[in-house]
Design brief:
The protein is of the alpha/beta class and 258 residues long. Helices cover 45% and strands 14% of the residues. The N and C termini lie far apart (37 Å). Keywords: Oxidoreductase, Plasmid.
Length: 258
C-alpha cells in the first residue's frame, strides 16, 4: 500500500485561490483526497467544492467547519495556507497594515487550530497516523529580509505556534499531527507584487534586476515552483509522515542552510 495516498481523506485548504493553494488542492485531489477549497471569494469558473472563509473571523471558521461536518462527517487534513505579505519600511508602515498581517498569518492559523481540532481529533482516531495540520510558513521565519518586518514576524510566530500546538496535542493524546512547510521565494503572483513593491521602496530598481539577484542568492539558483511546495504539503498530510510531528520542511533550494 502506498502510504503517500490520501484516498478517502477530507481536506480543507485555506487561501486556495493563490498559486500555492491551487497547487496544493490539485495534488491532494490527485492523491485521492476530497478537497474543500476556501478563500475570501470563489475563483471564477471553479467547479470544485468551495466555501467562503475569512480566516480572521471565528464565526466564519465555525460556519465552514459546521458545513464540512454536515456534508462529510469528518476532517482529516487542514492546510493553513492563507497569508498576506505587506512590504514597507518600518518607519513608514501603518499600524493597521502591521496588525492585518498578524491577523491573517498568525491569528488565522490559531483560529484554524482552535475550531478545527475537535473534528480533526475525531477523524484522526480513525485514520492511520491521525489527522494532519500543515501550516504554510516561510523561509522568512528563519531569515529576515528588509522591508518585510511584519511578514517575517508573523511567519516566525506561525512556526512557534506549529510547535506549541504539536506538543500540546501530544500531551492531550489528540491524534492530530501539526507540521509546517517553509517555501523559499515562490514563482507566484504574490512574489511579483513583492518585487514591484521592493522596486518602489528602493527608488526604482528594475524588477528583472531584483529577480535575477534573488535567484542568484539561492544555492540552487532559481525560484520555487508552487508544485514543489505542494509535494511537501501532501507528504506531511499523508500517513507516510505518521511519525513527523512539530517539524518543518524547507522547500527553498538550500537557502535556509546557506
Amino acid at each position: 500500500m502506498d502510504a503517500t495516498r490520501l484516498d478517502g481523506a477530507i481536506a480543507l485548504v485555506t487561501g486556495a485561490s493563490g498559486d500555492i493553494g491551487a497547487a496544493v488542492c490539485s495534488l491532494l485531489e490527485a492523491r485521492g483526497a476530497m478537497v474543500v477549497r476556501s478563500d475570501l471569494r470563489a475563483p471564477s469558473g471553479g467547479k470544485q467544492e468551495f466555501l467562503a472563509l475569512d480566516v480572521t473571523s471565528e464565526g466564519s471558521w465555525a460556519e465552514v467547519l459546521g458545513v464540512i461536518e454536515s456534508r462529510h462527517g469528518a476532517l482529516d487534513i487542514l492546510v493553513n495556507n492563507a497569508g498576506i505579505a505587506p512590504m514597507e519600511r518600518i518607519d513608514a508602515m501603518a499600524l493597521e497594515d502591521w496588525r492585518r498581517c498578524q491577523q491573517v498569518n498568525v491569528e488565522g492559523v490559531f483560529l484554524g487550530l482552535k475550531h478545527a481540532s475537535p473534528l480533526l481529533a475525531r477523524s484522526g482516531s480513525r485514520r492511520p497516523g491521525g489527522a494532519a495540520v500543515v501550516n504554510l510558513c516561510s523561509g522568512a521565519s528563519d531569515r529576515p529580509a528588509a522591508f518585510s518586518a511584519a511578514y517575517c514576524v508573523s511567519k516566525a510566530a506561525a512556526r512557534m505556534l506549529t510547535r506549541a500546538a504539536a506538543v500540546e496535542f501530544a500531551a492531550l493524546k489528540m491524534p492530530i499531527r501539526v507540521n509546517s512547510v517553509h517555501p523559499g521565494v515562490v514563482e507566484s503572483a504574490m512574489m511579483d507584487d513583492i518585487l514591484a513593491t521592493y522596486s518602489r521602496i528602493t527608488g526604482g530598481t528594475p524588477v528583472e534586476t531584483l529577480r535575477a539577484g534573488v535567484a542568484a542568492g539561492n544555492p540552487m539558483g532559481r525560484f520555487v515552483d508552487p508544485a514543489e511546495v505542494a509535494e511537501a504539503v501532501a507528504f506531511l498530510a499523508s500517513s507516510a509522515a505518521r511519525y513527523v510531528h512539530g517539524d518543518a520542511i524547507h522547500v527553498d533550494g538550500g537557502y535556509a542552510a546557506a
